[in-house]
Design a protein that fits this description.
The protein is α+β, with helices and mostly antiparallel strands and about 150 residues long. Helices cover about 30% and strands about 40% of the residues.
């Protein structure tokens, strides 16, 4: 089946450790940066910080809300956080890379497969529709990171 990929990347004017700390904190940090809409509640089932966390998150897809149950791994702790859907092949990655000036490049990518007409429609529409959502999430991440560092990065 064809793979569908959506994502965005931007520089966040905050240190990588601060940025990654927010992303890996599923109790407060990560829920605080999710754009609403399309995201709804994020509920931690177990863990709550980085690898081993299991959570549910709601997201609007068209007119309906869908709930995903996600399991978190950290293939590269401090740099790469991976959320894998328990009941589908959907995988979201959050990569944090250091850049000049003590800042961070954040890349959010979601991949899944879907065949048939629905897959064709998703391949044509979703990447363009998701990119602004991910850019908003990264902007929210920067705002929160700057609050946590006292706005000293810039």
């Amino acid at each position: 089946m064809p793979q569908i990929t959506a994502g965005a990347s931007a520089v966040v004017h905050a240190p990588p450790a601060t940025v990654y700390g927010i992303l890996s904190d599923y109790h407060e940090g990560h829920p605080a940066i999710l754009p609403r809409p399309p995201f709804g509640a994020l509920v931690v089932e177990s863990g709550g910080t980085g690898a081993g966390t299991v959570f549910r998150v709601q997201t609007r897809q068209g007119l309906a809300m869908r709930t995903y149950r996600m399991a978190v791994t950290e293939p590269e702790p401090g740099r790469l956080l991976v959320e894998t859907a328990v009941d589908s092949d959907l995988v979201s990655t959050f990569r944090v890379e250091p850049v000049e000036g003590g800042h961070s490049r954040v890349t959010i990518t979601t991949r899944w497969t879907r065949g048939g007409v629905q897959g064709l429609v998703e391949r044509l529409l979703v990447p363009a529709l998701a990119a602004p959502i991910y850019r908003k999430e990264i902007a929210n991440l920067e705002r929160l990171a700057r609050e946590r560092t006292g706005g000293t990065q810039g």
